[in-house]
């Protein structure tokens, strides 16, 4: 039974850690079919950064439960209670560390200059595009979140 509980807890923790991303290639469901604000900009610089992992408490709770159950099965009643409490504390610390590590994300910070001269900095996960200084990009903002993507080629109509 303990192995089943531990396995289920680890699967739940892994599932929670996979729920969030800042990738410019992934659009959240609530952003679909909503009009976004688009601004033209030029990339000034791009640098690698790490987005620190989240600590929602799910890892600590899961680890604490697993540690308490595993510890309480040690020895007799009194020893099981003591080891169960120690197991809960140790499990919570370990579960929190696992959650933080599992939700850590490699990202980029893109410094851009808007057409009006203002500068902006956007942090997002590394996407499929490699952005370089001097490139034309667009900033797409929906629901307070902004992503940077390469600007589409502009076709000039020369028939006039």
TrEMBL record:
The yes or no answer to whether the keyword Lipid biosynthesis is present is no
Leader sequence segment = 1-20
**At the top level of its lineage, which domain of life is listed?**
Bacteria
GO cellular component terms attached to this protein's record? outer membrane
Ranges for the Glycine zipper 2TM domain?
A: 58-99
The record, for InterPro entries, names: Gly_zipper_2TM_dom
Q: Does the keyword Signal apply?
A: yes
Keywords of this protein's UniProt record, alphabetized? Signal
- A family per Pfam: Rick_17kDa_Anti
Q: Which residues form a coiled coil?
A: none
What name appears for this protein in its UniProt entry? Glycine zipper 2TM domain-containing protein
């Amino acid at each position: 039974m303990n192995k089943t509980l531990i396995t289920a807890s680890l699967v739940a923790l892994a599932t929670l850690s996979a729920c969030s991303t800042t990738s410019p290639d992934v659009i959240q469901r609530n952003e679909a079919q909503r009009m976004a604000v688009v601004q033209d900009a030029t990339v000034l610089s791009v640098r690698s950064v790490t987005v620190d992992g989240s600590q929602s408490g799910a890892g600590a709770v899961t680890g604490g439960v697993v540690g308490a159950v595993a510890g309480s099965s040690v020895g007799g009643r009194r020893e099981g209670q003591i080891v169960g409490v120690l197991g809960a504390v140790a499990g919570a610390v370990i579960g929190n560390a696992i959650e933080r590590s599992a939700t850590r994300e490699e990202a980029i910070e893109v410094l851009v200059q808007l057409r009006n001269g203002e500068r902006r900095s956007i942090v997002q996960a590394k996407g499929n595009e490699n952005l370089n200084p001097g490139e034309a990009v667009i900033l797409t903002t929906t629901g307070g979140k902004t992503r940077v993507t390469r600007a589409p080629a502009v076709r000039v109509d020369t028939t006039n």
